[in-house]
Amino acid sequence: MRLKRVILENYRGYKERIIIEIDSLTAFVGKNDTGKSSIMEALNTFFNGTKLDVQDRSVYSNDDELTSIACVFTDLPLSIIIDESAETNLEDEHLLNAEGLLEIWKRFNYTGKQLVFINANHPSNNGFSELLIKKNADLKKMIQEYKLQESATLSVNGSMRKALWESLGSDLRFAEQFISADKEDAKNIWDKLQKLLPKFALFKADRPSTDEDSEAQDPIGLAVEKALKEQSIELEKIKNTVMTYVEHVATSTIEKLKEFDEQIAEQLSPNLKKEPSWEKAFAFSLTGNDSIPLNKRGSGFRRLVLFSFFRATTESSLDIESNNGIIYAVEEPETSQHPDFQRVIVETLLKMIDNPKCQVMITTHVPGLAGLIPLQSLRHVVMSGQSRAVLDSNNSEDRFLERIAETLGVYPSISSETAISRKIKVIICVEGPNDIEFMKRMSKMIHNNDSSIIDIEATDSVIIIPLGGGTLQHWVDINYLTKLGIPEYHIYDRDDNSQYQQFCAVVNGRGTLSSARLTKKRETENYIHQEAIKEAFGVELYIDDDTDVPAEISSMLKKRNEECSSVSKVKNKLNTDAVSYMTMQRLSESDANNEIIGWLSEIKSIAERKI
Predict the structure, then answer these.
(1) How far is CA 212 from CA 207, 215, 314, in A?
(2) Which residues contact 152 (CB under 8 A, 6 or more apart)?
(3) Of 46, 102, 104, which is closest to residue 74 (Cα–Cα)?
(4) 437 compared with 314, residue with greater pLDDT
(5) Better pLDDT: 50 or 500
(6) Residue 395 in 3-state DSSP?
């Protein structure tokens, strides 16, 4: 199951009911103390049962008001086996909400006692709305009353409920209602559902970050446990050898004791007080090649190590064969990190959610990190007086991104001084550094064969910059460039990302010299000839317009156990080494429509215009 939505009510600063949409990656951004961490800790209570105390209730609530934490799930199980003889599903039991999703509510009274409900679009006809909490005998009685014995299996409660509901035909009415999950089959279903919920793992910001942390000890402990299990036969031999030796010494001792008092000696015999605890025989700490232990390293280094341990621990307990997923919740991953590592952390998180069973949540108030997050993943947590709100690009006003930029202080990553001092006529905007390498090297190769085509790197009137399409920083930079009044030429990979199409439409709709293009092929790597790739990597690869070239090459290199086989490293080498092996003949074959030459011709035309 995957988490789709979170609902809070009367929880800490969230007095009024608030609905929070959850994505594969969800980043809660905002000022300090606006309620970002509260969302994480509410989920920790929901999934892991951390105790909710009186201080977790809104200070503005009354004693009779319940505190509620609810989660809405998608990717639901097709069936649920209540016991060995009963199989049912959530749809037949009418346990889905109006959207067809599973909505679980955990409600707490003033003392912290928990009650669990399923909020569902459930039958509401009088006498038919509480079938899930009726006992078998009561259901049989209703079946007999309505003469439905031939329509149901009397030993299966789900069969009887279905027959009773279907007997109403078109008169069956539905209404949203809370189904208590603590009685009869409703409880049985909830017991099964609990085992299918995603695992929730919270990595908090306020931690000492030493190798005594559980995140550091757990994976090492798991490694020790696994190693000991694999050597269990040998360890049993060692134990038996020790026992034999001890028994020999003890027997010899008793024999000597008989010389003093034979009656006393007969009362003694050697016994193993307890089984040996091999795990306690091994104690580890993390120490670098320079013999400096983790506890004495910098706080940023320690936090990176422990975050990696945190991932290792949670992933090792994730059953990849089951339907369970995992939700990583990381508070302020940028803490004590250099900006370069902040970028790496975001890239790591984005790779993690490639696994459909993995979701990631983070909190941050650092502009450098927030600027790298995809726009659809941003959630702006704001506070006004006693109320709080969590806004996203779908439920907020047009100034959503502008307000985040203002709140966090996200500034343009480019300088107007560069453009003015060099008298720039065109700014080429691409997604990232690899695209810059591709455009520079490809334009130079083409220019060397046809001087009428612009060489981007050798031309003073043109600069090329990475905007990282689809992020807050991208939005800030685009708006900043607009204010400079310099024509922009945007080139984005088509990929499978519809957002780039939206950005292109915005730029092309300005009514200025600025324009934007989506590659007709999947991405720039698809314009590199397979012979050039063969020379760079030593692999043969058939490439069409939709081939994921970096991923295919990475897979081939991994099978050959070659170093530098990660997709990111392959992508970099494609846009440097492989492009360097391109020729005009190869380009005419890999780009038969002259798309790249068309871009360069349009850029030159804009750069040479007369003002």
Answers:
(1) 11, 8, 17
(2) 143, 159, 160, 162, 163, 164
(3) 102
(4) 437
(5) 50
(6) coil
Pairing of strands 387-391, 18-21: unpaired
Q: Structure tokens of 598?
A: 């068309």
Cα–Cα dist 234/219, whole Å = 23
Q: Which residue, among 521, 518, 527, has the nearest Cα to 589 in the 3D structure?
A: 527
Comparison of pLDDT for 451 and 214, the residue scoring more: 451
CB 196 within 8 A of CB 77: yes
What's the chain's length in residues?
Answer: 611
Task: Specify the 3-state DSSP secondary structure of 218.
Answer: helix
Cα dihedral 396, 402, 408, 412 sign: positive
| Closest alpha carbon to 102 in 66, 132, 134, 70 | 70
Q: Averaged over 513-541, what is the pLDDT?
A: 93
Query: 353 with 374: CB under 8 angstroms?
Result: no
What element of type H or E holds 383?
A: strand 378-384
The model's pLDDT over 468-480, given as tens digits with 9 standing for 90+, comes to: 766 777 777 777 7
Calpha distance 293→288 (Å, rounded): 7
For residue 442, what pLDDT band results from cuts at 50, 70 and 90?
very high
Which residue in 226, 212, 367, 221 sits closest to 305, CA to CA?
212
pLDDT for 280 beyond 60 = yes
Distance of alpha carbon 62 from the chain centroid: 37
DSSP 51: P
Distance separating alpha carbons of residues 26 and 374, to the nearest angstrom: 9
Look up residue 122 and give its two tokens. 């459930």
Decide: 461 and 410 in contact? Cβ < 8 Å. no
Tell me how far CA of residue 584 lies from CA of 434, 445, 593, in angstroms.
21, 8, 13
Taking alpha carbons only, the member of 219, 223, 221, 210 closest to residue 310 is 219
Contact between residue 44 and residue 52 where contact means Cβ atoms under 8 Å apart:
no
pLDDT digits (tens, 9 = 90+) for 114-123: 999 999 999 9
Q: Give residue 550's pLDDT.
A: 93
- Is residue 132 a contact partner of residue 103, using CB atoms and an 8 Å limit? no
Question: In sequence order, which residues have a C-beta less than 8 Å from that of residue 345 and are 6 or more positions away?
Answer: 307, 333, 334, 337, 369
Alpha-carbon separation of residue 454 from 412, 441, 467, 501, 604 (angstroms): 27, 12, 22, 26, 6
Please report, as a single letter, which amino acid is at residue 171.
D
Distance CA 233, CA 208 (A): 39
602 CB neighbour count, 10 Å cutoff: 15
Assess whether pLDDT exceeds 50 at residue 319.
no
Q: Are 374 and 470 in contact (CB under 8 A)?
A: yes
Segment 586-591 mean pLDDT? 96
* Span 380-389, pLDDT tens digits: 998 877 778 8
Count Cβ atoms below 10 Å from residue 522 Cβ, excluding itself. 19
| β 174-180/114-123 pair status | antiparallel
